[in-house]
Amino acid sequence: MRNVIIQCLFYASLTFGIRTALLSIYFHRNHVSNQQRKVQKPPSVWSLEKKLHREINHGPQRMPRPPVRVELPEREEIEEERPFLKLDKNVNYSDTEVLRKFSRYGFNAMISQRLGNEREVPDTRNKMCLQKHYPTRLPSASIVICFHNEEFNALLRTVSSVMKLTPYRVLEEIILVDDMSEFDDLKEKLDHHLEFFRGKIKLIRNKKKEGLIRARLIGASLASGDVLVFLDSHCEVNKVWLEPLLLAIAKDPKMVVCPLIDVIDYMTLKYKPSPVVRGAFNWHLQFKWDNVFSYEMDGPEGPIAPIRSPAMAGGIFAIDRQYFNEIGRYDKDMNLWGGENLELSLRIWMCGGQLFVLPCSRVGHIDKQRIENKREYLKAMTYNNLRMVHVWLDEHKEQVFLRRPGLKSVAYGNISERVELRKRLGCKSFQWYLDNIFPELEESRDHR
Fold first, then answer.
1. Which one of 100, 305, 348, 402 is at 20 to 30 Å from 193 when CA atoms are compared?
2. Coiled-coil regions in this chain (predicted)?
3. Which range has the worst mean pLDDT, 66-80, 181-195, 426-440?
């Protein structure tokens, strides 16, 4: 019996070694082949106790596509998979450590480590934004950043960029919510590094994993600023990023605003500008970036005018804290993440608010290429989307079921509280939303 076990262990380790070697050779040969042919690269606190879509043409140059937070359909509806890696001449693909960390974090953590805790990023704003001036007195902001097993340097660059590029007078606090991270460097080592920001940082450690939606609710419940600003944990804010958001909300507390989301390439970590786009979605409930109509940029502000957006990506936005509470926060019965961005977008528009993208506010974001526990995520996303469909889409939910009939029999929990919320807020119909906010979705109803 002992010999059998030893043989099994030997063959298992041999198999793992061969697979690792083949994978390394594969990426190395692809890299060399691409260089030789010179073809274009493939597309793509402390606790509170003080302890602690389409590419878009703008002129002669084609701008890079911003990161897309896509709500994925079931696997059989996915037409094609994204490539595992986008090859880059500066990356050694024969290094198994690069591949191991890419698999763990969903982006090139080796380069992230070399970049360290902070860096300068290019100012990607339109030159017209540089002429804008903002009042000294603006609402205060609580920045809520939730993370789970985030790469250490990416998280610190997020925090450092906020601290460096946000006026002290408007920054009430940064609330970090650790949603049961397992990595050692996110424990005592993180506490030690955050000591530098003592006085502005609150670090909350959840006792169990809540998922992004409920973790954000925890962070928001502890905030004291006038405005809640939600950021993903792998962002880098740009110059004068917060003032445009705060000014818009100061003028209208029922206006929810998003920055333009620049691209931080997941393989090279280069910071690239995004074109002016708006958020949208289709009948599969997939979020996408969409063209902005030319007439929206025909006014005196031109390309820096606020853009009315049918939907938000959800990872990065600002909202008046009192208004966030008044309109029902997030649906706390949604699981993990996914779908909450569209649900909140519909609720904002249908219940008397507005949702805009502000081109003079820029925040870079890494579009990770890996989803942890993908099967669990897809299940949660389906559940969350169904809750939204049955509360907000009225008779138009049949358009969703026409495309995915199997969803009709899938459970979505008790929605009576959210239905009552809609009645209490006196929200308009989904047909009103189609007629007034997003008629392009109605026009696509016959295209499955």
1. 100
2. none
3. 66-80
Identity of residue 239: K
Q: DSSP alpha helices (H): ranges in 328-405?
A: 340-350, 374-392, 397-403
279-319: pLDDT as tens digits: 999 999 999 999 898 877 888 888 999 999 999 999 999 99
Q: Which two tokens stand for residue 126?
A: 């339109």
CATH class, range 63-448: alpha beta
Lookup result for tokens 């138009």: 396
CA distances from 364 to 66, 120, 122, 173, 445 (A): 9, 12, 10, 20, 33
Interatomic CA distance for residues 310 and 95, integer angstroms: 44
Question: How would you classify residue 364: left for phi > 0, otherwise alpha for psi between -120 and 50, otherwise beta?
Answer: beta
Average pLDDT over residues 111-126: 95
Contact between 109 and 102 under an 8 Å Cβ cutoff? The reply is: yes
Q: What are phi and psi of 279, to 5 degrees?
A: -90, 145
Contact 289, 55 (CB under 8 A): no
Phi-psi region of 269 (alpha: psi -120 to 50; beta: other; left: phi over 0): left
Report how far residue 230's alpha carbon sits from residue 232's, in angstroms, rounded to the nearest whole number: 7
The answer to whether residues 193 and 157 touch, using CB atoms and an 8 Å cutoff, is no
Catalogue the long-range contacts made by 377-381 (C-beta closer than 8 Å, 24 or more residues apart): 377/336, 377/337, 377/338, 378/72, 378/74, 380/211, 380/334, 380/335, 380/336, 380/337, 380/338, 381/71, 381/72, 381/336, 381/337, 381/338, 381/339
The mean per-residue pLDDT over the stretch 177-206 comes to: 93
Q: How many CB atoms lie within 10 A of CB 372?
A: 13
What sign does the dihedral 152-154-159-160 (CA atoms) show? positive
Please say whether the beta carbons of 379 and 353 come within 8 A: no
> 62, 126, 123, 91: which is closest to 364 by C-alpha?
123
Distances in Å between the Cα of 347 and the Cα atoms of 165, 254, 285, 418 are 31, 12, 15, 11
pLDDT band at 53 (very low <50, low <70, confident <90, very high): very low
First to last CA, the chain: 58
Cβ neighbours of residue 32 closer than 8 Å, sequence gap 6 or more: none
